[in-house]
Amino acid sequence: QVTVVESGGGLVAAGGSLRLSCVISGDFFSTYHIGWFRQAPGKGREGVAVIDAGGNENYADSVKGRFTISRDNSKNTLYLQMNMLKPEDTAKYLCAYESRYYKAYGLSLEAADFRFWGQGTQVTVSS
Fold first, then answer.
1. pLDDT tens by residue, the chain, 127 residues
2. How far apart are CA 95 and CA 6, in angstroms?
C-alpha cells in the first residue's frame, strides 16, 4: 500500500550538485527512519546517509561534508542534497525506510536494516 518514489537523478559534471527526493505515501511518514543507499555496477549496496524519525543524521565517510540529508514531514518527502559531486558518486540511488516501532535505532547504514525500498534513481557524474 505504501509507495516509495525517488526522483532527481541525472547526469551532472564533476563538482556539480544535484538534489534527490523521495516521496513515501501514507500517514506514518514521520514515524519512519529513512535512508539513501547507492549501488554501482559490480558493487554492493552502500549506505550513503540516513535520518531517523527524530531527525538525527548519519553519513558515510565518503560523503560527509558534501551531502546533506533532510526530511519534510509535512510533505512526506526525504531529500539528499549532493554537492561537490565526484565520478565515484555515480550509482543508482535508492530510498529505503523502516518503522521506528520495528527498530528503535534508526541510524544504521546497513541495507539489511531497512525493509521497504523504492526503485531508485540514476546519478551519473562525468569527469
1. 899 999 999 999 999 999 999 999 999 999 999 999 999 999 999 999 999 999 999 999 999 999 999 999 999 999 999 999 999 999 999 999 999 999 999 999 999 999 999 999 999 999 9
2. 7
